Records
---
Amino acid sequence: MFSEKILHHSQLLYHSFARTTGKSLLQTVPISEEFLAQALYEAPFVLLSHDTQTDPVFNYANLTAQQLWEMDWAQFTRLPSRLSAEPVAMAERQAMLGEAREKGYLSDYQGVRISSSGRRFLIKGAILWSLYDAQGAYQGQAAFFQDWTFL
């Protein structure tokens, strides 16, 4: 069901979150790569990540993220991550990402985001972290949150 790339990226998200925060994204221990990929993709929380380009583009968005931003996988994974925030919030978002990159992760972040239809929502309690693979190579940044309010 999932491509080799998504199976690998799901592992990266799961293990880097645990290494960085000391917490687990799931309440159950994944029994296979496929189980992990499906559990993260169908989770009731938002999980997304962007790549390492100068203007990073989303490379992962689970179903909850897709529904919240009102985009499908193909749309989401072509979107520069800076465009997930309103123009007035972009500077704040960039500073927050810089802090997360410097410190490894940032917890309890909140900020306003905007869906593809223009619907605004406040995310609360977000954890942002830098993605490093098992060899220590930087792979981008990710975000997890489960609390949001439509404005």
---
Amino acid sequence: MDLLATILISIVAFEHLYFLILEMFLWTKPKGIKTFGLKSKEFAEDTKVLAANQGLYNGFLAAGLVYSLITEDTNLSIFFLICVTLAAIYGSYSTQKARLFYVQGIPAILALIAILINN
């Protein structure tokens, strides 16, 4: 795997590790409430189990991407980057927030392009 692809995959993995932290541990804190534009602290408390589940899935994406880098398995990288891209498309569509796609989807797509150009 070339350096650019490795850097881009690392960025996507880091983002998803950060999402895990935000959703599992900071959801009800001011940082989580502000980041996700939640209506209130009460709403955050009511939805924290759902957010933790979401965070766990983001952790799995990060772990898969890191594992693909360690093993230098391009096919595994492609698989997880496609998963991230699909999650970004669905997330931005379902929340009506295009920003979600730019933050999550664009880096994954750029990493995919970097991999595919070098194969």
---
Amino acid sequence: MDYFVNIVTILNAIFVISMIFLERKKPEVIVSWTILFAFIPVVGFVLYVLFGGGLSLKTKRMLRRKAFYDDHYQYYYREMENGEDVIKNKRIASLIRYNLVGGKSVPTFCNSVKIFNNGQDKMASLIKDLKHAKHSINMEYYIFADDFVGKEVMNILCEKARSGVKVKLIYDSVGCLGAPRRFFRKLRKAGGEVKEFFPPLFYIRLINLKMNYRNHRKIAVIDGKIGYVGGVNIRKDHLGYKKKLSPWRDTHIRLEGQAVYALQNTFLNFWQFCNKKNIETKEYIKQGYFPKFKNKGNVITQILTSGPDDTRGNIKDSMVKMINTAKSKIILQTPYFVPDDMFMSALKQAINSGVRVVVMLPKKPDKKFVYLASLSFAKEIVEAGGEVYLRDGFLHSKVLIIDDIAMCIGTCNADYRSFYLNFEISAILYNKELIKQHFKVIELDLEKCRPVDLVYYKNRPLFSKFGQVVFRLFAPLL
């Protein structure tokens, strides 16, 4: 037994050296793993093998090759060169320029946006649009469950595929662990195409050395004209059918306009990666995946993506830039609040500058250890003078609003996992009236919240206080 422990200890030391010199992980991540190796070496070893290892060089090369930008996007780049003449608000122009230069997120100026504040409304709208699809359906979901919600959507996809509509589906291997492969084979048999993102070793579901890197995106593009993105997965609990986490509060958007090009481009990038085939962008254009648009609205939109292949952290950096731009108020809704130092510092600086900072978390946790870590970070916001609220039920919404100039809605939580490990997508929306309308929704949320103060923390049970301290140590690994 001692011999085995010694071998594990040596391997753990090699892992630490690899993290420092080869993978160059963040110091806080290295420290968290080192603590785990020191106190429970065998458990730490197993967890690192399953969750901690970096992406292989082959995978990294494939991910880099997946990125492509077509002529349509180059047109929007040129448009942005004169875009600041259209945008009178200098703060908006600065945010757009930041996302364009740093995140390669092309702004589009004529979009129509509808916001859904619960899963049932989003799903009803999506199903309606799927039934009216005539050319193509492209879907990329973290969770696509084999329950009555998933079955209804799957039956529509199969019916459309049989009728000649081009149907493509990407599902995440870990997120869809509970759905049998025969569930997805239905679509293949109907003529659709299905790809599993980061499939497990030898296709044995529980042996997946890349399970730490999840495709957390929720994208649907219908006929290249209508797009969906946000927090709602295809599963019954996201529609409020799980009493333990009810009421379920979420945010999802429906897009029409040129911003749909960005969603389509994001999907096709990943399709090429999963399909291991390179198809010229012009070919996709010829096949009708990027139809011409008439002006649909007046919402300026940027679509941002991020993932472990993105060393910059596009979405997190954009959110920090938004926070630093705020002058009067910041609203953050997130189910998990485990931010890094940069994000937390930005929030504290905003508070110290007189900006009202509101952080809204769920009252009912779905992952207790992450929830305890979230409460620990939230305490810092309270101590700094910010406001923290716990909304009734489970809050799954991922929303950041600054003043009345910009709003971020997508799949990215305010935690290490979303910032650095998951593949995420968010829409940045610039429209004063749309933001004002959504502020009314936030006000209704606040009516269903419990405010958190230092007395709340003082009265927490001892095991909760202990858990907040312990799980915060492992925040980068949660």
---
Amino acid sequence: MSTPASSSSRPVCTGPGQSGFSRRRTFLKAGLGGFASLTLPGILRLQAASQAQANTSGKSSREKTAVIMVWKPGGCSHIDSYDPKPTAGSEYRGPFATIDTKVPGLQFTELLPRQAAIADRFTILRSMHQGAGGHPAGSMQMLSGDSDTRDKPKPRLPDWMAVTNYLRSQSGPRQVPVPAYVGINPPLEYNGPAYLGDGYSPFTVSGDPNSPSFSVPNIGLTDTSEVRRLGRRATLRQNLDTLERAFDQQGELAALDEFEIQAMTLLTNPKTKEAFDLSREDDRVRDRYGRNAWGQQLLLARRLVEAGVDVLTTSLSGPLCGRVGNWDDHAVNHHVFEAMRFRADIYDQAVSALIEDIYERGLDKRVLVVVTGEFGRTPKISYQPSTGGGNASAPAGTVQPGRDHWPRAYSNLWAGGGIETGRFIGATDKRGEDVTERMCAPGDFLATIYHHLGIDAAKTMIRDFNGRPTPIVDHGKPIPELIA
């Protein structure tokens, strides 16, 4: 397990929200066009648009640990997956049989046979609880620790992914040719870097990695003439800003240099292109994950953390979820049981393959895998007319079963990270309505992830837009059963 970011008894407070590092995303998104426009006026505008480079007191975390978060947007039914209730009444339990797993006393529904067979390689937390019933607020609670139960149009606090990216950026240039934070079709709707600035958002990979035409733009150029041209542009910029360095009191140009180096690395380093290139995987490995978007997303996630990415987020959404493209299985959206069955095999295969790979490739101490959504679904089944026909949904007007939002009790999965596996934590009542044992909240969830990343959530603060020291999590502690 990596060491905490600071052993001091006082909180570590890092400086202003919109630091000089916020310009990195400008360069990463710019690609060739951005480099072609690197002129002195442009650079001065970038300098004026950003604030001083963050000042840090205490040692920032720059360990080799990494996290893959697999997000299920909309909220997965815990009763129809990891916390079945076979003795509950028919209005609660659903139609799925219960199966034993490799862990004595731990049962899943029949939808997850592959995960049941390797349950000794992960831990199920069955006692998550939070107070927000809406997707925005629920997501913000889980990803940033915002305790507000009201839905907001944008986050007030930065999510843990951006915070980690920010803190690790304080330790200087990266030693690997891949970005620190990558999102493969990431969850972006209800979270983000907030006052840290867009520079700490993910390097985003979009599209279907299983598609023959899939590619990631602006990485690993193979045209040597373009590489030489970019080199000349960078050299020209360095010559132009020589005079300005005499007035660069806060290291702005040095920060800009780092961003250019990172962007140039993405554009020109062949190892970067290799990391994103799924064709380099053996066909049998690709088949094991599943020749579909979700399977190949998780395979690409494994490749990237193996290449040195620190934070990897990916969202299991889109057509593989059913008609509305997410796990929000209200009766108006989906026939909840058809939807769970529709997506279960692909989900089960992809997640099982990722977990197996993490262990078989020796990544299980360094890489923590977390599979979760913002909440569960109502234990009691509801019935409403469908608003439209399609995958996992009957024609419009047809009354069908659904489950609604349920933040009072839900489950998530943890693997790798050096944790003790083959266990389950917490319990819910006989209907799956409320936590009865070992309740865990979003602050605990976040503190556990930060702990793995070497960040002491109780002692680390970042200044917000107003310069006020703001805790990265103001509640919760690492879950003892989920830390090495």
